[in-house]
Amino acid sequence: MDVFRLVREFLTGETAADRIEEELRHLDNAEVRIALLGRSGTGKSSLINALVGERVAVSGVVETTLKAQEFNVNGLIFVDLPGGGTTRFPFDEYLDTVKVALYDAFVLVVSKRILESDLDLYEELKRRTGKRIHIVRTMIDQDIENAQHDGLSPELVLPRIRQDLESKFGVSTGYWMVSNRHPEKYDFPAFCDSLLEDFDEVRRDKFIFAAQAYTNEQLIRKREVAERHVLLFSGMAAVNGFNPIPGADVVTDVAILVKMNQWILRCYKLDEEHMKKQLKRHPLSSAQVTLVNRLIAYGTREFIISLIKRQAGRMTGKEIAKWVPVVGQMASAGMGFALTRWMGQDLINQCEKASRTMNAAPHSKSHNQSF
Ligand SMILES: Nc1nc2c(ncn2[C@@H]2O[C@H](COP(=O)(O)OP(=O)(O)O)[C@@H](O)[C@H]2O)c(=O)[nH]1
Ligand SMILES: [Mg+2]
């Protein structure tokens, strides 16, 4: 969907207002379902946690029961199917011919030791789904460390492991050698890219929205998705007649801005709920705490109103035209649109900057830890 065109058509009266709302709802309601299979202890839970950048699945415990577990993080749903071995679970219960269609991607997780049962699991999975299976080999950090310890060249480690996997599973699938402890390294980012290829446009956006961005490329992608959303929210603001008058003291309905800003904060994992959880595990520096507190404020009504009061007075017709060339001549819709867009862009910029700071120094020590 060309969101920019949609918004332009709406603003010039060529398309109905509810198309904007529909598109936004469509994106909001989308779900991505990823099935993860593999023996206990291979790193499935850790992989889920690394993908979303938070601890949703408990790792490091031996799974004694074969029970599927579902984790839903902002619409990105992981189904952990701890099968393998001699049991026919999860196929009979979870991956029969009908239910296979429920999943958007299939991931087989393996670690150092590949057993005959892993190969059987793979064959059966391939046969049942008829789809590409991503094979993720975890704990690469340990292999590298061992190689270094043994005086072997770490550069040889990945090609060797790949060869070994190819000799077992065949060459017709994708292998990703990852460390769940370093999701910014090795094949982890490439694994995320390759998952995206399995999704349609809406699910692609959803995955990018809900997954943690560790690399520069991932941040660039997040920005693209966030900017498209801001455009839609700005259209919604115009639809709803959000029209702050420059200089006036009254601000009417800011509900859409609150919603937009909270969406952006969630997209960058800088929302209050996420940060509170993170803080329990990783202390932030006091500078980071100040930064996060400032960003979280953007999701509140009071802060938005004060920001609008300051900004609306400053915005001239010319500035509105600059921000939104397509609505330059439509002053009434333009003001609400332009202000929303300006605020969204501003928050995206700040969140991106904060993400870069956090990625650069994720575990720095600190004292003052409250939001
Ligand atoms: N060093 C290292 N340890 C890992 C990695 N992935 C998982 N682990 C550890 O291996 C253990 C089993 O992982 P877990 O995610 O619980 O596996 P699951 O049983 O498949 O869900 C835990 O102690 C994890 O911390 C990895 O990529 N590198
Ligand atoms: Mg687990």
Walk me through this protein's architecture.
- It is a single chain.
- The radius of gyration is 24 Å and the shape is globular.
- The protein starts with a helix and ends in an 11-residue tail after the last helix.
- The chain has helices at 3-11, 18-29, 44-52, 91-94, 116-129, 140-149, 157-169, 188-196, 201-210, 216-239, 255-267, 272-281, 286-297, 301-314, 317-323, 331-360, and strands spanning 32-37, 69-73, 76-81, 105-110, 133-137, 174-177.
- The protein is built from 16 helices and 6 strands.
- The longest helix is centred in the last third of the chain and has 30 residues, at 331-360.
- The protein is α/β, with parallel strands linked by helices and 371 residues long.
- It has a 6-stranded mixed sheet, with helices on both faces.
- Residues 323-331 and 362-371 have low confidence and may be disordered.
- It has 2 domains: 3-28 and 213-360, no CATH class; 31-204, Rossmann fold, CATH 3.40.50.
- α10 packs antiparallel against α16 (331-360).
- The structure holds guanosine-5'-diphosphate (GDP) and magnesium ion.
- Guanosine-5'-diphosphate (GDP) is lined by residues 38, 40-46, 59-60, 63, 138-139, 141-142, 179-181.
- The site of magnesium ion (MG) has 5 residues, from α3.
